[in-house]
């Protein structure tokens, strides 16, 4: 049996909310170790696309396949497996406020993976140390900075051994001085070969990490290509125009 070329294939996803069509036949593929970056104006459907990919939101039509096998989106077991294999990082962290950093990471290990407490704690400690929070494990989200909260969320996702990580503007809710610590963690993941799709407005992540950039607007992937193809010197692409406006806004052009 030959290995499927793509770890993830999304084919012709459509999604509407009432009369509002959010995704208009979006397709993409992801190879193992590939990083795709999703950019585009607010309201263009980036979050909806990421939520459909791990079925937090059910698409109206279209298919999602992993390793060449289509996920039956109506089958609970398939959905459960999909969510275990595809981790998600949200802009707003989505931690449990009543649980410590450690327990935010152990809870899924214990409830979903059925690990005993010792093993779950050990794994969670390892992941929290990886993101530089080994000394913060007993703190609650309210006692952590935004950057630390996002790093807990990343540790939580990694503890489940995802094959693909979806990141939805992971640095957008952070104060500017905290963006760097989360970017470092994401860069370290990239260096280890993690397969990712990330929506971001962070120019340094787009140019430095992406193998492919997808420019999404009005529910359609309007342009895609390597950072060089879309953002190289003198390129008159829509992606380039969008990034120019971004760097004008936040002054981080390089
Ligand atoms: N649960 C929802 N119910 C109704 N409309 C929604 C919902 N989620 C998103 N939308 C709408 O979908 C559009 C695309 O949103 P979103 O996917 O969040 O775009 P982006 O992440 O690119 O900013 C927006 O117009 C938004 O208002
Ligand atoms: Mg969004």
Report on the structure:
- The chain has 254 residues and is of the alpha/beta class.
- It has a single domain, classed as P-loop containing nucleotide triphosphate hydrolases (Rossmann fold), CATH 3.40.50.300.
- It has a six-stranded mixed beta sheet with strand order 6-7-8-3-9-10, with helices on both faces. The protein has a four-stranded antiparallel beta sheet with strand order 2-1-4-5, covered by helices on one side.
- A hairpin with a 2-residue loop joins strand 9 and strand 10.
- It starts with 5 loop residues before the first strand and ends with a helix.
- Adenosine-5'-diphosphate binds next to helix 1.
Q: How confident is the prediction overall: mean pLDDT?
A: 92
Q: Architecture, according to CATH?
A: 3-Layer(aba) Sandwich
* Inertia-based shape: globular
Q: Would you identify the regions where 5 or more consecutive residues have pLDDT less than 50? A: none
Number of domains: 1
Characteristics of this structure?
single chain; Rossmann fold; alpha/beta; 254 residues; binds adenosine-5'-diphosphate; four-stranded antiparallel sheet; binds magnesium ion; six-stranded mixed sheet
What is this entry, summarized?
With 254 residues, the protein is of the alpha/beta class. The chain has helices at residues 46-53, 76-85, 101-111, 117-130, 146-159, 176-191, 203-209, 227-231, 238-250, and strands at 6-17, 20-31, 35-39, 61-66, 69-70, 86-89, 164-168, 195-199, 212-217, 220-225.
């Amino acid at each position: 049996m030959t290995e499927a070329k793509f770890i993830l294939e999304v084919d012709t996803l459509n999604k509407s909310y009432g009369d509002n069509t959010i995704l208009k036949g979006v397709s993409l593929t992801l190879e193992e170790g590939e990083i795709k970056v999703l950019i585009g104006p607010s309201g263009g459907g980036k979050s909806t696309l990421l939520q459909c990919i791990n079925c937090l939101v059910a698409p109206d039509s279209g298919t999602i396949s992993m390793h060449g096998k289509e996920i039956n989106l109506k089958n609970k077991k398939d959905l459960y497996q999909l969510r275990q294999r595809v981790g998600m990082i949200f802009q707003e962290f989505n931690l449990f406020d009543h649980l410590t950093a450690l327990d935010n990471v152990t809870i899924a290990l214990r409830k979903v993976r059925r690990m005993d407490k010792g093993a779950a704690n050990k794994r969670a400690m390892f992941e929290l140390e990886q993101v530089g929070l080994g000394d913060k494990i007993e703190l609650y989200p309210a006692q952590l900075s935004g950057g630390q909260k996002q790093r807990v969320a990343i540790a939580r996702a990694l503890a489940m051994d995802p094959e693909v990580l979806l990141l939805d503007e992971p640095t957008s809710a952070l104060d500017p001085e905290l963006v760097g610590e989360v970017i470092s963690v994401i860069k370290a993941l990239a260096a280890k070969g993690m397969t990712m799709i990330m929506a971001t407005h962070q120019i340094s992540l787009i140019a430095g990490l992406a193998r492919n950039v997808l420019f999404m607007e009005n529910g359609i992937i309007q342009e895609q290509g390597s950072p060089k193809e879309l953002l190289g010197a003198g390129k008159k692409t829509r992606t380039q125009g969008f990034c120019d406006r971004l760097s004008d806004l936040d002054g981080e052009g390089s």
